[in-house]
Amino acid sequence: MRKHRRTRKGGGSLPKFGSALRTHLFSSRPRMLLTYSIALLLACTLGAVTVFSVHSEKPDPGRAPGALKNGSTVVSLTFDDAFVSQMNAKELLARHSMHGTFFIPSGFIGSEGRLTLDQIKAIQDAGHEIGGHTVNHLHLPVLDPAEQARQICDDRVALNSEGLNVRSFAYPYAVSDLRTEQIVKDCGYNSARSESGLFRGGACDTCDFAETVPPANPYSIRTSTPVINTTKLASIEREIIDARNHGGGWLPVVFHDVCDGCSSMAISTSDFDALLEWLESQAANGITVATIDQVIGGPAKGVVAGPVDQRPDGQLVNSSLEIPDPNGDPNIRAQCWQRSGYGDNTSTWSRVESAHSGGWAEQVTMGSWESGDQKLIVEEDSGACSPAVKPGQTYTMSAWYKSTAETKFVVFFRNSQGRWKFWTESPQADPSQDWTQFSWQTPPIPDGATRLSFGLQLARVGTLSIDDYGMALDSPT
């Protein structure tokens, strides 16, 4: 079990449904793909060039974007983050003969509370669109261009390699900039969806009521804010009616969980079913449902792999914790290090000046504990921060610490599919009032592991200060 992700409840049970028919706005057809590898230099950023590996597909004439009749409105039902409760959405959509777009972070596939690969394939086989959502669901604009390209391109590579036809993208956390949009385009996507920019009463009263078809910027498709557990069904219907009454257009709707009370980002199965039933009733009023790809159209582009990280095996970034993270974190956590935890506990993280060396260290104080832990580990990414490793090798990791409770290293690895998994942990290190270095040699790296994330853990009430991490490849014995 992955020991630093929050646990989630399973999806709710589905209600009983009647059958229904709908008229499709667009048609789709099968695509035959043929891949081969070439090398290509693509501009990753304005003024920066990165080497990408490209797999070209057999030419596909694609479809022109669907033209809307005056006053007609198309709704796209989109689902983010591969939550397993989205299987409820699949079943409900089938009852109403509708299709949606499911944006999948490939690194999440098969992890706790997420869709398995077989479930995702079943979603595609049922006529739904599968889209990309990065490998590890990171804030893209704060990453360096190469890491952005790996997150965006390699997600599409991983999904396509499993037989999933991926043309559309959605930004994690709905954050992007011009550089990120260009990288999405260079990775071969036909479009990218945000999570804002359209009218929502009280939040964006001056915004347009609908996106245009085609959109002015297909790499920043506008939506209203995502549906959460406090969103009223009537407000979703009102947004669609407002779009129709103001000339029509395109309204992508963003969902996460589809279940009864399983998360703060959930719509209940009964509300989702009622929404689909209402959408059916609006067909005569010019409101129809289509996937993102059906609206955008266009041929499938080549599958592009991100650039390869050139750092030596085991090399850490910002091991001294001196460089602050640039993403605006109120506590300014150290760049390339993530504060992580799970279970039933309360904790406070801070960046402190009482360091072992330099000017800064990281500190966590746990005020109560029933289960789980808090830890400072290497950022789980695809190469900008996490060090590369070789199967069969051993590595010695170290850190300086002060702690009122025992601590230990916990270690995770990234497999060839981009998925992070808990691997192992060290013996306990004793509490220490003074700065003390703790070192530990890992077992041989398992087959299939490509990168490591590790860090010191606090799993009791107390305070742990951390500084000056280290990692070194051991000489063969």
Task: Provide a descriptive summary of the structure in words.
By secondary structure, the protein is of the alpha/beta class. It has 2 domains: 73-296, Alpha-Beta Barrel (TIM Barrel), CATH 3.20.20.370; 337-473, Galactose-binding domain-like (Jelly Rolls, Sandwich). Helix content is 16%, strand content 32%. The strands form 5 sheets. Strands 3, 4, 5, 6, 7, 8, 9 and 12 form an 8-stranded parallel beta sheet that branches. Strand 15 (345-352) and strand 16 (361-369) form a beta hairpin. Helix 1 packs parallel to helix 6 (269-281) and helix 3 runs parallel beside helix 4 (178-186).
Termini separation comes to 32 Å
Helix content: 10-25%
Stretches with pLDDT under 50, minimum 5 residues = 5-51, 54-61
> What is the CATH architecture descriptor of the largest domain?
Alpha-Beta Barrel
Instruction: Output the radius of gyration.
Output: 24 Å
How many structurally independent domains?
A: 2
Regarding quaternary structure, what we see is single chain
CATH topology term of the largest domain? TIM Barrel
Largest β-sheet summary: 8 strands, parallel
Helix count from the secondary structure assignment: 7
Q: What amount of the residues lies in strands?
A: 25-35%
For the residues shown, what is the average pLDDT?
A: 86
**Category from helices, strands and their pairing:** alpha/beta
**CATH hierarchy, class of the largest domain:** Alpha Beta
- Report the CATH superfamily of the largest domain: Glycoside hydrolase/deacetylase
Global outline: elongated
Output the helix-strand order: EEEHEHEHEHEEHEEEHEHEEEEEEEEEEE
* Strand tally: 23
